[in-house]
Amino acid sequence: MTHRTDVARGQEIVARWCNLAEQRLEHLNELFETGRWRRYHSEQAFLENIREARAAVDIWRELLTREASLENSPIDLSWLGRGKSKLPPPDISPMPERRAEAATLAEAAMTAVAAAFETAAEVLEQPPVVADAPPLEMPPPVMPPPVLDLDTIQRRYPLLRNAL
Fold first, then answer.
1. What pTM, to 2 d.p., does this model score?
2. Quick one: residue 36, left, alpha or beta (phi over 0 = left, psi -120 to 50 = alpha)?
3. Closest among 23, 78, 88, 87 to 59, alpha carbons compared
4. Distance between CA atoms of 107 and 95, rounded to whole angstroms?
5. pLDDT band with cut points at 50, 70 and 90 for residue 155
6. CB 47 within 8 A of CB 91
7. Which residues of 68-80 are buried (b: 16+ CB within 10 A; e: fewer)?
8. Within 10 Å of residue 12's Cβ, how many Cβ atoms?
9. What secondary structure does DSSP assign to 5-54, as a single string?
C-alpha cells in the first residue's frame, strides 16, 4: 500500500482551492454577462466582489506553481518579505470619467422616458375615431329556458325510469 507524501496531499488541496476560486470568478462573470448581478448586488459591491475573486484566483495560482520546501517546514520563508496581500482596498470608488458618462446616459434615458410619457398622454386625451364601425344594435331578447317534459325525458333516457 502506497502512501502519498504530505507534499502531494498539500498540492492537491491547493489545486482544489484554486479550482474553487476559478469557479467563483466564472460564476461572477456569468452573472455579469446575463445581467442577473443587478438582482443581488449594487454596482460598487459587485465590482469589489469581482476584484476580490480575481485576486484570490491569482494568489491560488501562484501557490499552485510553488514547490514545497525540502525540510517540509510549515512556514514558507519566501512569503516573509512579501508585504501585504494583493487584495484590493475596500473603499475604491469608480473613476470620475465613468461617473460623468453614467450621468449623461441617465439624463438621456430620462429625457426619452419623459418624451414617451408626453406622447402617450396626448394620444390618450384624443377621443377615439372609428368611422367604419357599424351602428350599435340591441341584442336579441333572451329566450326563457325550455319547460321540462317528463315523458320526453323518459323516452330519451330509459334507464332513468326508476329514478323519476
1. 0.41
2. alpha
3. 87
4. 19
5. confident
6. no
7. eeeeeeeeeeeee
8. 11
9. -HHHHHHHHHHHHHHHHHHHHHHHHHHHHHTTHHHH--HHHHHHHHHHHH
Q: What percent of the chain has pLDDT over 70?
A: 66
Instruction: Give me the phi and psi of 152, to 5 degrees please.
Output: -65, -40
Q: Cβ-count burial of 41 within 10 angstroms (0-12 exposed, 13-18 middle, 19+ buried)?
A: middle
First to last CA, the chain: 89
Are 153 and 160 in contact by the 8 Å Cβ rule? The answer is yes
Higher pLDDT, 152 or 75: 152
Name residues whose C-beta falls within 8 Å of residue 48's C-beta, 6 or more positions apart in sequence. Answer: 88, 90, 92
Q: In whole angstroms, what is the distance from residue 86 CA to residue 84 CA?
A: 7
Grid cell digits, residue 146: 325550455
Nearest CA among 58, 63, 52, 61 for reference residue 28: 52
Q: Are 21 and 56 in contact (CB under 8 A)?
A: yes
Query: Which residues make Cβ contacts (< 8 Å) with residue 57, sequence separation at least 6?
Result: 18, 21, 22, 25
